[in-house]
Amino acid sequence: MRMRKADRPRCGAQTRAGGVCRAPCVWDYERQAPRNGRCRMHGGCSTGPKTPEGQQRAIEAMQKGHRRWRDRQHEGEFEAELEGFVAARPP
User: Fold this and answer.
1) CA dihedral for 11, 14, 20, 22, sign (positive or negative)
2) What does pTM read for this prediction?
3) Which of 56, 54, 30, 26 is nearest to 41 (CA)?
4) pLDDT over 70 for what percent of the chain?
């Protein structure tokens, strides 16, 4: 039986204000239990790829994302030029 989100255990990590975190723990739906007892903010940072193959995949993904971002920036400039051209054209 699935546990309601409101009934799940809370993180309990100490906050900067001195209280405790009241966010629900990260949930493992297969086991129907908390994964590590902490929420998504207090569960620890990703350590990143460790193998050379994983590091290369991460680099390629960042380069691909940068190219897509750069292309979108240039498309916006071109569209802005077209809008100016259409607006300046006499009827």
Assistant:
1) negative
2) 0.44
3) 26
4) 79
Are 21 and 11 contacting, i.e. CB atoms less than 8 angstroms apart?
yes
For residues 30 and 21, give the distance between their C-alpha atoms in angstroms, rounded to a whole number.
25
Q: What is the pLDDT of residues 73-88, one digit of tens each?
A: 877 666 666 666 555 5
Tokens of residue 24, six digits:
């629900």
The DSSP bridge pattern shows strands 33-34 and 27-28 to be antiparallel
Q: How far apart are CA 40 and CA 13, in angstroms?
A: 11
Residue 51: φ, ψ to 5°: -85, 155
